[in-house]
UniProtKB/TrEMBL annotation:
<dbReference type="GO" id="GO:0004674">
    <property type="term" value="F:protein serine/threonine kinase activity"/>
</dbReference>
<feature type="domain" description="Protein kinase">
    <location>
        <begin position="124"/>
        <end position="377"/>
    </location>
</feature>
<keyword id="KW-0547">Nucleotide-binding</keyword>
<dbReference type="InterPro" id="IPR017441">
    <property type="entry name" value="Protein_kinase_ATP_BS"/>
</dbReference>
<dbReference type="Pfam" id="PF00069">
    <property type="entry name" value="Pkinase"/>
</dbReference>
<keyword id="KW-0723">Serine/threonine-protein kinase</keyword>
<keyword id="KW-0808">Transferase</keyword>
<comment type="similarity">
    <text>Belongs to the protein kinase superfamily.</text>
</comment>
<protein>
    <recommendedName>
        <fullName>Protein kinase domain-containing protein</fullName>
    </recommendedName>
</protein>
<keyword id="KW-0418">Kinase</keyword>
<dbReference type="GO" id="GO:0005524">
    <property type="term" value="F:ATP binding"/>
</dbReference>
<dbReference type="InterPro" id="IPR008271">
    <property type="entry name" value="Ser/Thr_kinase_AS"/>
</dbReference>
<dbReference type="GO" id="GO:0005634">
    <property type="term" value="C:nucleus"/>
</dbReference>
<feature type="binding site">
    <location>
        <position position="153"/>
    </location>
    <ligand>
        <name>ATP</name>
    </ligand>
</feature>
<dbReference type="InterPro" id="IPR000719">
    <property type="entry name" value="Prot_kinase_dom"/>
</dbReference>
<keyword id="KW-0067">ATP-binding</keyword>
């Protein structure tokens, strides 16, 4: 049957066939077998046939025993209904259309994660905007059938900054993730004007807000960083470098330290042995590994350095290791890795791990796998020990959701880095005008350097607004934060 994919779809795959007879490296026991009715053009009727599925792979066996398979990743999927036959599933890829009739609920529920759907407004209500950036806006999404809420990242296909390659890669990486401390993608839609990525809605704030309001004990910091390291170990096992680990991208599924979730894979990339990438310089100043700023090759250990910065912030509360009066000097200190460890008032074992994660030389720096095995996490690695949860509570708040534009600091590979701009001098804030250690920059205070590449330009600089805040000794989130504000705190201004 002729494909119903519109010609302006970014997911067209004209260079591949639907069915393949080449050997596929997957265990037969991994496949689930189901019977469906399909239309036989020879007999002009519907017949019962066996199909097998594992993830996005569907298999069938011909009469001669030949086994065929297809990968329906980014194929269009929709439910259909034909009189006297019943409810069916239509999967369209290239110029081929596969229609299956029968009990299709289970297949549709699993396959919609890997496929693309049309007509999002038939199923969902796109509600209020939660955040915006240069590349995507984030909205609350309400499912019509049960009023359940989700988050949807909306990309404008008409924008001159729309990058289909980056979106397809981000979606592909998100589909690989299946970890309790990594954000879950649920489905994707495409219209003539937009691409929609639907994820879970995380309702309990982000780590940036927690650090600005709360004093963490050493034990709490250890519990929190272990969750981040454990999730990064999983992400790296999938061959992926996140490249934007920072407090704003650490969300909370539930209001306790064990429910941390790494989000925003807009800058994520597959690791390669050369350590060179299409968009090489990526991240947020203050959380980036020095080798990235130096335009050197880098690997998974860049994420370990960023996690080390978060660990440092947890242990020192709101202090930053790099922020000084002049923003250009802040970038230079980040590049040079100048960190004052004397302000870390923790046990020697914790400080030793912190120094290993923040080692300037990436060859000497520990990996997240090595960090995970550190002695300070011994009780977390023993599954027989129950970790007591210390909760903090929040009413009617929504966590941050970062769009790709909130943290881009990058330049194309094999091109010289742009000159560092001179920004307004930022003064220290202290009582009675006395100098003190500067507070950590909030996400909306961070100035990001634009890239020469139009599709991957950085955000405009935001006005620095540092205020002294009273620190509580518990985990309660500021009740005055509204939903839109929490999302907007990590979103940059629109680029010119």
């Amino acid at each position: 049957m002729k494909s119903r994919f519109s010609s302006d779809s970014i997911f067209i795959q004209t260079d591949s066939q639907f069915w393949n007879d080449q050997w596929i490296q997957m265990k037969e026991s991994d496949f689930k077998e189901d019977y469906f009715l399909i239309y036989s053009h020879n007999k002009k009727t519907y017949k019962n046939k066996v199909f097998k599925r594992h993830g996005p792979i569907i298999k069938k066996v011909k009469k001669n025993g030949l086994e065929l398979w297809c990968d329906i990743t980014n194929a269009m999927i929709e439910t259909i209904q034909i009189q006297h036959v019943g409810l069916g599933l239509r999967i369209t890829k290239n110029s081929y259309c596969l229609e299956l009739f029968g009990y299709i609920d289970g297949w549709f529920k699993e396959l919609k994660k890997f496929c693309i759907q049309k007509q999002i407004k038939n199923l969902f209500i796109i509600s209020n905007k939660l955040g915006c950036g240069n590349f995507a806006d984030v909205h609350r999404l309400i499912r019509k059938s049960d009023q359940k809420e989700f988050a949807v990242k909306i990309y404008d296909k008409k924008s001159h900054k729309f990058d289909s390659e980056c979106i397809i890669k981000e979606l592909e990486i998100l589909r690989k993730m299946d970890h309790s401390n990594v954000i879950t993608v649920l489905e994707a839609f495409e219209s003539q004007k937009s691409v929609f990525i639907v994820t879970e809605l995380l309702n309990s704030g982000n780590l940036d807000h927690i650090l600005s309001k709360t004093v963490l004990t050493e034990d709490d910091a250890i519990k929190g960083i272990f969750k981040i390291i454990d999730a990064l170990t999983y992400i790296h096992s999938k061959g992926v470098i996140h490249r934007d680990i920072k407090p704003e991208n650490i969300l909370f599924r539930k209001p306790n330290l064990e429910e941390m979730v790494i989000s925003d894979f807009g800058l994520a990339e597959y690791h390669n042995d050369e350590g060179q990438y299409k968009y090489h310089r990526c991240g947020t100043v203050g959380n980036m590994a020095p080798e990235i700023l130096k335009d050197q090759s880098y690997d998974y250990k860049a994420d370990c350095y960023s996690a080390g910065i978060i660990f440092y912030q947890m242990l020192t509360q709101v202090q930053s290791p790099f922020i000084v009066e002049d923003y250009q000097e802040t970038i230079q200190r980040n590049e040079q890795g100048l960190i004052d460890f004397s302000v870390v008032k923790s046990s020697s074992a914790v400080v030793n791990l912190l120094k290993q994660m923040l080692e300037l030389d990436p060859y000497k720096r520990c990996s997240v796998q090595q960090a995970r095995s550190n002695i300070i996490f011994k009780k977390f690695n023993r599954q027989t020990i129950i970790i007591k949860r210390k909760r903090f509570y929040q009413d009617q708040t929504t966590s941050s959701y970062s769009s790709r534009s909130s943290s881009i600091y990058q330049s194309p590979m094999n091109q010289p880095s742009p000159l560092l701009p001179i920004s307004p001098t930022y003064k220290y804030i202290g009582l009675q005008n006395l100098c003190s250690i500067p507070l950590r920059l909030r996400s909306h205070d961070r100035k990001l350097i634009p890239s020469p590449n139009k599709c991957n330009s950085g955000a405009n600089s935001a006005t620095l607004q540092l205020k002294l805040k009273n620190k509580n000794s518990n985990f309660k989130i500021n009740q005055k934060n509204n939903i839109t504000g929490m999302y907007s705190s990590i979103c940059s201004n629109k680029a010119n």
